[in-house]
Write a structure and sequence with these properties.
The protein is built from ten helices and 13 strands. The chain has about 350 residues and is of the alpha/beta class. About 45% of the residues are buried. The structure holds NADPH dihydro-nicotinamide-adenine-dinucleotide phosphate (NDP). The site of NADPH dihydro-nicotinamide-adenine-dinucleotide phosphate has 22 residues, from α2.
Length: about 350
């Protein structure tokens, strides 16, 4: 695939492509839609995905996969999940024969995404994988290949593509020339033992966890792929951040000259996005939350949506209509390629070309 084809595939993902019948093997029920199984019943599944699945039109919470018996019991009662649709990580592959589960949603620590995306694909289930899609671009390629080989659709949990504020900033570059994009996303990690602080499970620190939203913003606001990157990594608490980075700042070279700076940290709070185009200046704070996003410029207001419910419904619509998700596996791969270049630039302390091959 040449670079131009790759750009089309990853950023301007063509929703017009009609794929082979993706409903084969799905027991689509017009009343309730497709059945979704959540893998990993942590904070994101508990507080966001399960509640969102109570609001979706094209799918419903049909199954769970967990390593914790207590959670399985609680969830089965709360969401009336049938015993046959409850799995452990060991029994997960039996999901293949379960025609009530059409979609698997992987919400595990980052380093476990690849294994469960590939096992889902081999079981013939369509997959949504949480961000970051993997802990390396090599992993992402393996996941994409497995999904293609098994004729299942793959998507990444990039919920902000379904948010009205972000949809607005995505449209700005189409109306006039962009001059500047800046974003800053951070929070303070209190527990040095959580998996996000472990290189083996997280793959990296703030950049992998939340800086990825800055990378996403850079691409969908500019509507261009960054070509080169410079980056600086800082540790004000090296004794605390022993395995992964604490704070990282980066700047891209885009094909068009757009001034930009992005930073992300696990050691200071920040949640801001600022876009300056010839037509409009737009500041968003908070910018990356699930709800309550706010524009500080001329009080521009958009209606609040349930980002996760829209994301889930859109993915199921893609399956039903046989087209790619706009938040595709290729987009997840692209972001890991950019992230790898950011880490390299920070380490080498020089500008690095981003490798999209
Ligand atoms: P949590 O730590 O809250 O939950 C992870 C769950 O994974 C655990 O509760 C556990 O579930 C399961 N698990 C299996 N193996 C392990 C292991 N070795 N260590 C820790 N947990 C394990 O994480 P989150 O829910 O916050 O994050 C999960 C994924 O979702 C991450 O990839 C993260 O980046 C992403 N995320 C995305 C967000 C978004 O806005 N799109 C927001 C938050 C997270 P069980 O007990 O059921 O086995």
């Amino acid at each position: 695939m040449d670079r131009r084809q790759f750009i089309e595939k990853s950023t301007l993902v063509s929703s017009a492509i009609v794929l082979p019948n993706l409903l084969t093997g799905c027991r689509f029920d017009n009343e309730v839609g497709l059945g979704v199984a959540l893998v990993g019943l942590g904070q994101y599944s508990t507080d966001q995905l399960a509640p969102a699945l109570q609001k979706t039109n094209n799918c419903y919470l049909a199954g769970i996969v967990s390593g914790t018996d207590e959670k399985k019991n609680d969830w089965s009662k709360k969401y009336k999940i049938r015993e046959e649709n409850i799995y452990s990580y060991d029994s997960f592959d039996q999901i293949k024969g379960n025609d009530e589960i059409d979609v698997v949603y992987v919400a595990l620590p980052n380093a476990l995404h690849k294994e469960f995306v590939i096992r889902s694909a081999k079981a013939g289930k369509h997959v949504i994988c949480e961000k970051p899609m993997g802990i390396s671009s090599t992993e992402c390629k393996e996941m994409i290949d497995a999904c293609e080989q098994n004729n299942v659709l793959l998507s990444v949990g990039y919920r902000l593509h379904f948010d009205n504020y972000h949809r607005h900033v995505m449209s700005l570059s189409k109306k006039s020339r962009l001059r500047q994009i800046n974003a800053d996303f951070g929070y303070v990690v209190e527990d040095p033992n959580e998996w996000r602080m472990k290189k083996e499970l997280a793959g990296g620190g703030a950049l992998m966890n939340i800086g990825i939203y800055c990378v996403q913003s850079a691409c969908y606001i500019s509507n261009q792929l960054p070509e080169m990157v410079t980056a600086q990594s800082f540790k004000s608490k090296p004794h605390f951040f022993t395995e992964v980075e604490e704070t990282i700042t980066f700047q891209f070279s885009f094909p068009d000259a757009i001034s930009n700076t992005f930073s992300t940290s696990h050691n200071y709070p920040a949640n801001r996005l600022s876009v300056d185009s010839e037509n409009e200046k737009f500041d968003l704070s908070p910018a990356f939350t699930y709800s309550g996003l706010g524009s500080t410029f001329r009080s521009r207001k958009f209606s609040t949506v349930n980002q996760q419910a829209l994301q889930l419904d859109d993915f199921c619509k893609c399956i039903i209509e046989g087209r790619r998700s706009k938040v595709s596996g290729e987009m997840g791969l692209r972001d890991l390629q950019i992230i790898e270049a950011i880490y390299e630039a920070a380490e080498l302390k020089k500008e690095v070309k981003i490798n999209y091959s």
